[in-house]
Write a structure and sequence with these properties.
Strand content: 15-25%
CATH topology of the largest domain: Outer membrane lipoprotein wza fold like
Strand order of the largest sheet: 7-6-10-8-9
Structural class: alpha+beta
Radius of gyration: 30 Å
Shape: elongated
Number of domains: 2
Distance between the termini: 97 Å
CATH superfamily of the largest domain: Outer membrane lipoprotein wza domain like
Amino acid sequence: MHRNRWHPLGRLLSAVCLAALLCVGCFTARKRTDPPPVLAEIPIDPAQVYTLACPDLVEVVWLDRPDSPWMGRIGADGCVTIAGLGSIRIEGTTTAEAAQQIAAVAGVSPEHLRVRVAEYASRQVFLFGQVEGGPRAVDYRGPERVVDLLRRAGGLSPDAAPNEVYVLRAQVGEGIPAEVLTVDLPAILQNGDHSTNLRVQPLDEIYIGEKPRSRIRRAIPTFLKPLYESIIGFIPHPEWRTARQATQPAK
């Protein structure tokens, strides 16, 4: 009798516990599968966030005498030496922060002067493959987008493959392998999808591939190249034209 009297209550408690566990399980599963919130990216002006370093060449313009700017390089100690003010450390600062530090030493308001980078000389980004002007190092001017940097460098060469653009990014930590990041140039330029339009970092290596027909052309004997060019000229390549034109510097 005692066991039968408590049996319905036990079943009720078991049902309540099971329902609670199911609710917790559903909440946990939903928590795991819900995507994180997408945050809108804050626009960045690379020049405003660029940090000064040796041996960048900087110019200081005093607004009350703009015709007599001071210009000098940041030394190995991270300082510039300005006549009448002495040595002022500005390495690691933005131009706006450098203006504040110089103004503080001069005893004036930061609004009385401007600091700008006259020559970016401290860090580089390396271009390889089919880029106008050939493979080379270009100066790093802050966290530009890849497409903006390619435009600044002169754009893609006629033999470039816009669907073969990669960024090799070395890792600072010892023993951490470098990353190879894909830049989907057609998606960026044709569809406005900037998810792969990376912001470059110092020492990034950007590789632009070569069109298959260009590789074939190099392998063709010289006396057959005119025939090959006449045949290939009839084949339209709208994707390449769009990508190449979009990465050319504005005139």
